UniProtKB/TrEMBL annotation:
Homodimer. Interacts with LigD. Keywords: DNA damage, DNA recombination, DNA repair, DNA-binding. It comes from Rhizobium oryzicola. This is Non-homologous end joining protein Ku. The gene is ku. PANTHER family: NON-HOMOLOGOUS END JOINING PROTEIN KU (PTHR41251). The keyword Lyase does not apply. The keyword DNA repair applies. InterPro entries: DNA_bd_Ku70/Ku80, Prok_Ku, SPOC-like_C_dom_sf. Belongs to the prokaryotic Ku family.
Length: 297
């Protein structure tokens, strides 16, 4: 088995404690089906090429620099050495600056996850002390370091026998939801519609099991490629059947399995006190009926 390759190596520190650690990619797209661009006529691969937008002539790599547009066709040109000198120094240190409750960070800010592990046996004891401290207190840590030429903020949390370090989006990178949700009209959802919605949600409650979810797009591509190699034809999957309903309430009833028009919502479960009151009323009614019968006789 090939040992995983570290994306970054440095030191995890908190106070006077320090240990050598490494970051490893936790989520990768390497196993996805990938394609090359092919010339349909010749069957040869097609390569992209940098060309000048005005002259149309190819541009060599040594002549390519970064530019920031300040006007129509005007740019501030940044040389690679200038960009390198401007970014923060990579001190190779993950200093645990702040400790917060696990789950406090909004998932909107989560970017990419990395496994964080000690690099050797000498670092393992201090690493385990930090990990246990975070786990037993249900705490996460905020740290910062230079990753891939950018100063990144990371959320560090205990995970199994190691730690997960997730890079975080900056505040300016996360768009406000106000402009997206502003035009959503308000509705009063209540009564049977709300009861049915809660019922449907209740019947579909479960746990998140990642292995149960499959990338049907990737599976379909893999099957298509295999069929092309074997000279087989792929049958198109039939489109999903449409169910026509007269109203949102009818759609909810069908989803809940209680029929369409005229259907009734799932019966509400009576509480113990309500059930006891019902039994008392039945018993009292039965007693009155027996007493009246005796008097009549």
């Amino acid at each position: 088995m090939v040992a995983p390759r570290a994306n970054w190596k440095g030191y995890l520190t908190v106070g006077d404690l320090s240990c050598a650690v490494a970051l490893y990619t936790a989520a990768s797209t390497a196993d996805r089906v990938s394609f090359h661009i092919i010339n349909r006529r010749t069957g040869h691969r097609v390569h992209r090429q940098m060309v000048d937008s005005d002259t149309g002539r190819p541009v060599e790599n040594d002549d390519i620099v970064k530019g920031y547009e300040i006007g129509n066709g005007e740019y501030v040109v940044l040389d690679p050495d200038e960009v390198k000198a401007a970014v923060p120094e990579a001190d190779k240190t993950l200093d645990l600056e702040t400790f917060i409750p696990c789950g406090e960070v909004d998932t909107l800010f989560l970017d990419r996850p990395y496994y964080l592990a000690p690099t050797d046996k000498h670092a393992a004891e201090v690493f385990e002390l930090i990990r246990r401290g975070l786990k037993d207190s249900n705490t996460a840590a905020i740290a910062r370091t230079v990753l891939f030429r950018r100063l990144r903020t990371l959320l560090i949390r205990p995970h199994d026998e190691g730690l997960i370090a997730s890079t975080l989006n900056y505040d300016y990178e996360v768009r406000s939801s106000d402009e997206v949700f502003a035009d959503i009209p308000e509705f009063k959802i209540q009564g049977e519609m709300l009861d049915l919605a809660k019922h449907i949600i209740g019947t579909k409650k479960g746990r998140f099991e990642p292995e149960e979810f499959h990338d049907r797009y990737e599976e379909a591509l893999a099957e298509l490629i295999k069929a092309k190699i074997e000279g087989r034809k792929i049958r198109k999957a039939p489109p999903p059947k449409e169910t026509k309903v007269a109203s949102l309430l009818d759609a909810l009833r069908l989803s809940a399995g209680v029929g369409g028009d005229g259907g009734k919502a799932p019966p509400k479960t009576k509480s113990r006190s309500a059930a006891s009151k019902s039994k008392s009323r039945v018993a009292a009614k039965s007693t009155r009926s027996t007493t009246a019968t005796k008097k009549a006789s």
